[in-house]
Amino acid sequence: HVAEAIKGHAKQQDADTSLASYLDGVFDCYGIDTDVRGTHGLVLNQNEYMQTPFPGLSDDGMTITYHRDTALANEDMHFVTWEHPLVTNSMENIVTHERGNTAMVAMKCPGIKAGTLLIEALYILESSTSTTLQVARYLPQTSLRVVLDQSGKDYQSDLAHETISQAQQTIKAEAIKKIIRAHGQQLRKLIALSDKQAQRQAPAIIQQAHQQAKQTLGREIGRLQALQSVNPNVRDEEIEFYTSQLVEIDNMLEHTVPRLDALRIIIAI
């Protein structure tokens, strides 16, 4: 019954079409042509509009399939799952690459004067990636969101991220260039105000991480100290290890700052 449950879960994953839908969007954004091969195959090739290399795709292209039996019957086909390097590398590239992390849109904003500049900024608050200290246990990657107008008024609660995404209107590239040239200095000041707002949000989150690290490591230190009182085999070095680790984690958390990750400029109309 255990094996049958695992087999059923595997079949359920194979039948899920969300991966194919996701990669269709990724291929379209990157400029990758897809041609059908047979019943379940796709041939991927770079086209002339491709601006950045797609990780895992060679110049000669590749043939993929989401169908397990088809992959088993065709050695030249890559069986693509969520764990395939083509997928994981593309996700990593999307998350870390700067392309696509800025935008300028127009939007009707009730109660906001037409022509007003607003900014929606997303910040990442992340700890050190040290595998020894494992700071991410206490401060996992956290996003901060700031929405301000040119006077510094906070609109975070009034303009939800989804509301902006649904109501936004596209601005032509030439118009965007003109707006940036005309309001460049104002936009820089707005980003500086946004940075300060994010820095004001960060301490409360960092303080929670401090408390969690203190409680977790403090319990371990207390346990070893209590054990040492009845068992001389517990060495002082073991206790000192956790004590020094707590000090280092506190120090890293103190130097954690928000990092600007994405920016959307909004023109009220």
From N to C, what is the helix and strand string? HHEEEHEHEEEHEHHE
Beta-strand percent range: 15-25%
Described by its quaternary structure, the protein is single chain
Number of strand segments: 9
Question: How much is the average pLDDT?
Answer: 89
Q: Strand order of the main beta sheet, please?
A: 7-6-9-5-8
Helix content: 40-55%
User: Structural class of the helix and strand makeup?
Assistant: alpha+beta
Q: Which word captures the global form?
A: flat
How many strands, which pairing sense, and closed or not: the largest β-sheet? 5 strands, mixed
**Radius of gyration from the alpha-carbon trace, in angstroms:** 26 Å
**Runs with pLDDT <50, length 5+?**
none
Give the N-terminus to C-terminus distance in angstroms: 62 Å
* Number of helices, counting only DSSP H or I runs of 4 residues or more: 7
Would you write up a description of this structure?
The protein is an alpha+beta fold and 269 residues long. Helix content is 47%, strand content 20%. It has 7 helices and 9 strands; from the N terminus they run ααβββαβαβββαβααβ. The longest helix is centred in the C-terminal third of the chain and has 56 residues. The relative contact order is 0.14.
